Task: structure prediction
Amino acid sequence: MQAAQDNAVGSQYLTFALAHEQYGVDILRVQEIKGWTPVTHIPNAPAYLKGVLNLRGTIVPIVDLRMRFSLEEIEYTPTTVVIVLSLVADGRERTFGIVVDAVSDVLNIHTADIRPKPDFGTAVDADFISGLATVGDSMVMLLDIDRLLRPDEINAIASVSE
Result:
């Protein structure tokens, strides 16, 4: 009975655009959405780590999701935003921001409408995709924020923000 209710209710996802594709993250992991503002560059940081942002006294690492996903780089536009998220790694909650092309919508996606990600074998690292949802005529890739970055990447950005 409870499982049927969970399937009927689903979860809310913040969706965003990245290279003409739609992605979604659990809305409960979103702390805030900010328009793009220049960040402080960190020397010798990985290329996808754009820098850090002082967010009301908290130093927040900013990750360019296009670069993290090996997509074509583009100029940031007025629709470019930073989504500030919280992830859990090594039992600790960490805050970081992702740069995306534009925020789209908040969708309520029923659990029954989420399909498992395709099995790419070992050729493609897609551990950060938790599932695929069809919404209207488009498909939304749902991201597992806790797997978006590898442990070595989390340690790299954690060393910047601590």
Remarks:
- The chain has three helices and eleven strands.
- The chain has a mean pLDDT of 86.
- Residues 80 and 110 are 28 Å apart (CA to CA).
